[in-house]
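Hello Y.,

Per our agreement to keep a running log of every chain we model this quarter, I'm adding this entry. I've kept the format consistent with earlier entries: sequence first, then predicted structure.
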Amino acid sequence: MSRDLELENRVEFLKNYTEKAKANGLILGISGGKDSAVVAALAKRAFPDNCMGLIMPCHSMDEDVSHGKKLCEELEMDYNIIDLSSTYDSMLNTLEEPLDELAKSNIKPRLRMTTLYAVAQQKNYLVLGTGNRAEIVLGYFTKYGDGGSDVNPISDLKVQEVFELAKALNIPQEIINKPPSAGLWEGQTDEQELGIRYKEVDDFLDGKEVSSKVRKTIIQKYKASKHKRQTFAEYRDLGPLDI
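Predicted structure for the entry above:
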């Protein structure tokens, strides 16, 4: 399939899904990274006048905010900057139990999700997810945080495929070249935290040869994160209503 047709099909998917949901448009969080940049560009093509980006720093690096602003301005997409740092601090101060670093870090994407849905409801927009296939397979997202969305147009794409789409969509080069990072803390990168490279995950998903250590790590993370890929566990699944 040609790159242009690939883009067109994903744009049409967003249009059709949004219209069936009787929503007016699309909104997403802009992180300053490749994944959200590609999704933003697709959203802009699908709904040129009814899409919005929220840049939501939460003790974030200035570079991420700068890249988010540059992306939205180049796409001519409406955007707003909502600093969640004081909200985050207030929540930590409210909790009596001290939290470890990972628990504290996961509050940030959950605050962003809450903010996105508040604005989305006001505008009757759908919330876009921005996770790629590797992140979803590894469970490398925050449940009810960046994993909370209505529709995701890149969930089937491996990291290299997102990279190729980013180039085709003329995403700013400094965003394309950035090491993937969830922005959970300063200097954090996905590959450092995961202990494997995305190239290795892509190869595994393509059925290519990977080391036994990489294979074991991917399978372990996939199994351990099964609960994150379903809404909730049910005692008994009664299935859909026959109506």
